[in-house]
Design goal:
The structure is a homodimer. Chain A is of the alpha+beta class. Helix content of chain A is about 35%, strand content about 20%. Chain A starts with 9 loop residues before the first helix and ends in a 21-residue tail after the last helix.
C-alpha cells in the first residue's frame, strides 16, 4: 500500500468545503434568529407500522434508526422555544442505483405557535442567506460557476398549492390524478419551470401527510409544505404544522396504528407539547442543488447506498 | 392525555441551553482556528474483532453503528487539512445503571502533521474558550453557580504521563500495577487533586492503545493522551497520534486482526492518508462537568441507557 496524501480531486474537495460552509451559514442564521441547537435520539423504539427504517437489536429490545426528530421535536419546542437540529437520518430504501442515500443529514427547525406561512418564511430566508453567503472563490471551476449562479436567489420564493401543481402538470400534458403522490418526474417537470426554489403546500391527507393538522377550509388537505429546488433537483425539504395531543391520537387511531405507538407517543408528549410548525431539509440534496452535482453521492464524503457499505 | 406545554423543570431547560451554547462556542473556536466541519458515516461494515458495537443488518450486509470517525478521520485531514466533526456515537455497554450512555455525541478534531503536544494545546485552548464564553446568567441557580466556577479555568492544563499517574496513585495508597488500565476509581482519585482539567499521556500499548504510534523513546508506550476533568468527573477525551499506512497494517497483524479489516482499512487509506494528531471528546461528559451534574443522563434530553429506549 502506497500512502496517498491527497487523492480526492479538486472538485470533491471543493464540494466538501462548500458543505462545511453551508452548515456554518445555516447555523449562523438560525442562531442569529433565536434558535437553540438540540440533539434528539438516533436509536428509537421499533414501531410495527414503520416501513423503510433500519432495524437493530438494542439489548432485549427492537429498535430502529431515526428518520428525524419526529415527536421529540415538540418537546424541544415546548421547553426551549425555537430549536433546530442538524443530525444524521437513515432510510432503508429498497432501490438500486444512486438516486437516494440511505444515510443522510437533515437540518430540522421548528417554531412554537408558528403556522404554515411562518415556516415557509423561515426556510426561504435561511436558503437565501446561504446562497448569498457562499463565497464564489471556494474551489474548482465548475463549483465556482454553480455558486455564482446562486447570487440571483432572492426571497420570497413562489408558492403553489398541491391542487395548483396538479393543474400545472395537466397543462403540461401529464395524466396525473388529484390525490396521487407527486412522482420524481412530476417534481422535475414543475421544477424546471422555476429559477428559484418554490413551495408546494396543502397536500391531500391520502398521501402520507396524516401527521399534519387538517386544513380548516378542507379536511381532505393538510397543513403540509414541501420546498422544491429549481432546475430539476427535486425536493429540498418537507414540513408543516404537525398535529399534537388529542388530535394526533385521533389521527393515529384513524390510521389504525397500534396501541404501543400511541402509548409511546403519549409518553413523549408528557415531557412537553406545543403547537408549532417546522421542516426537515436534506443536507445532501441541498448541496447537490447548490453545487449543481449530477449525483447526490457526490455531496457526501462516504456515501451509503442500497447494499453497499464500502469503504 | 392533558397537553403539557412545558414540563421540563428550569434546571433541565438550563442544562439544554448550556449544551446548545457549548456546541456553538466549540464550533466558533474551531472555525476561527481554520477547522472545516465534516461528517463521517454512522453505518460502518461490521468487523469481527470489534466489541461493544451495536450491530444491525444492512440489506444483505452486517453493519455496526459508529464509535467515531476512526480511520475516516485521516482521509478528511489528508484532503481538507484541519477538520472537526460533532456527531452521534454508540456503545453497547453491558452495564446496568446510569454511569454511561449508550448513545452520546462526540466532538472530534484532527490536525495534519500535528504531534501529541499540538493536540493537547488545541484541547486546552478549546475547553478554556468554552469555559470563558459560557454566560453565567444562562439559567437556574445551581447551573449559574456551576458556570461561575469555570471562570478560573485557564490554559495550559497540567500534564502527567501514565507512568507518573501510576506513581501518584501509589503515593495515595492504591495498589495499582504499571501496565494496568486506569479504572474509574483511579481516575477519580487523580482528578480530585486538580482544579482544572489535566492530561495523562503515553499509555502502555497493552491497554487498547495499539492504534496509536509507538513512542520513539519506549516502544512499550504509545503517543496517546486522555484529558480528564477535575473534581472526579472522569475522562473528557481520548486522542493521540494514530498510526497510519504500513505502520498501522503491521500493528493490525500483530494484534491478529483479520484480513477483511486490513483490506477495509487499506481501502480507506486509498482515499487519502496523512500523519496527524486528534482527539474525541464526549459532549455529555463535558456538559456533566461544566454544569456539575451528578448524573450524565441529565446532560442528554432523551438519554439512552442499557436496555432502556423509553420514551
Amino acid at each position: 500500500m502506497t500512502k496517498k496524501e491527497s487523492p480526492w480531486d479538486e472538485r470533491k474537495k471543493s464540494v466538501m468545503r462548500v458543505r462545511s460552509k453551508v452548515l456554518h451559514e445555516a447555523r449562523s442564521w438560525l442562531t442569529e434568529h433565536g434558535f437553540y441547537e438540540v440533539q434528539g435520539p438516533v436509536i428509537m423504539p421499533a414501531i410495527a407500522e414503520w416501513k423503510s427504517y433500519f432495524r437493530l437489536r438494542y439489548y432485549d429490545l427492537d429498535a430502529v434508526l431515526s428518520q428525524g426528530l419526529g415527536p421529540y421535536a415538540k418537546v424541544f419546542i415546548a421547553n426551549l422555544g425555537r430549536t433546530y437540529a442538524i443530525s444524521p437520518s437513515f432510510r432503508a430504501e429498497m432501490v438500486n442505483g444512486d438516486r437516494r442515500l440511505t444515510e443522510y443529514w437533515l437540518i430540522e427547525a421548528g417554531i412554537p405557535h408558528g403556522n404554515l406561512e411562518a415556516i415557509m418564511e423561515i426556510q426561504e430566508r435561511l436558503v437565501t442567506h446561504i446562497c448569498q453567503h457562499l463565497p464564489i472563490d471556494i474551489g474548482e471551476t465548475t463549483i465556482q460557476k454553480a455558486i455564482a449562479r446562486l447570487k440571483r436567489i432572492r426571497s420570497p420564493f413562489p408558492r403553489l398549492t398541491y391542487s395548483k401543481a396538479i393543474d400545472l402538470l395537466r397543462d403540461e400534458g401529464y395524466d396525473v390524478q388529484w390525490g396521487a403522490t407527486l412522482e420524481y418526474r412530476h417534481e422535475k417537470a414543475l421544477s424546471v419551470q422555476f429559477k428559484t426554489p418554490f413551495f408546494i403546500s396543502r397536500f391531500p391527507i391520502s398521501i402520507e401527510t396524516y401527521s399534519y393538522r387538517n386544513c380548516p377550509e378542507n379536511p381532505m388537505l393538510t397543513l403540509s409544505v414541501d420546498l422544491l429546488a429549481p432546475e430539476g433537483y427535486g425536493e429540498l425539504s418537507s414540513g408543516g404544522e404537525p398535529a399534537i395531543g388529542e388530535e394526533m391520537l385521533k389521527k393515529m387511531k384513524e390510521e389504525e396504528m397500534n396501541l404501543d405507538e400511541q402509548k409511546w407517543y403519549a409518553s413523549i408528549e408528557e415531557m412537553g407539547s406545543t403547537f408549532h410548525s417546522g421542516f426537515a431539509m436534506g443536507v445532501e440534496r441541498l448541496i447537490q442543488w447548490l453545487c449543481s452535482l449530477e449525483h447526490i453521492t457526490d455531496a457526501s464524503a462516504f456515501p451509503r447506498l442500497h447494499n453497499c457499505l464500502y469503504p
